[in-house]
Specification:
This protein has 137 residues and is an all-alpha fold. It is built from 4 helices and no strands. The radius of gyration is 28 Å and the shape is elongated.
């Protein structure tokens, strides 16, 4: 979905009209002039969006998260698969060096990593917005 800037559209129309009047010998100058205006327009939009994001961060708001369909599934699947692949040698090393207590600590770490990842570290670290300053749980 494209957004149309009416001022930019007017500039393009004026450039095309000027080209018709002046002829093709001035075409490269007209195109360069229009591209400079387009570049300034893009720069202005980018600066405005960055400023809006900085204001959101300063307020403590989070910009909307753009989700890609299925991305969360594959991310969780990857972490789970990697932790299972690493669990075999880690379990062997823990058992050889520390016996059953080492194995239990190893698997507690594996389960902990997967649990934190599935819940989402951001949810654990996000400040609570419904509490007043200095209010206790």
């Amino acid at each position: 979905m494209a957004t149309h800037d009416p001022d930019l559209r007017k500039e393009l129309d004026a450039t095309l009209q000027t080209r018709k009047e002046l002829g093709p010998e001035y075409e490269s100058e007209l195109v360069e002039s229009f591209l400079e205006k387009l570049d300034k327009n893009v720069d202005r939009r980018v600066r405005r969006q960055l400023a809006e994001q900085q204001v959101q961060v300063a307020r403590g708001d989070r910009p909307p998260r753009r989700e890609v369909a299925g991305r969360d599934f594959w991310e969780r699947f990857g972490v789970a698969a990697l932790s299972l692949v690493l669990a075999v040698p880690l379990s062997a090393i823990a058992t050889i060096n520390a016996g059953l207590p080492g194995l239990l600590v190893c698997w507690a770490g594996i389960v902990g990593v997967n649990a934190v990842h599935s819940v989402g570290l951001r949810n654990l670290l996000r400040p609570r917005t419904n509490q007043q300053d200095g209010e206790w749980d």
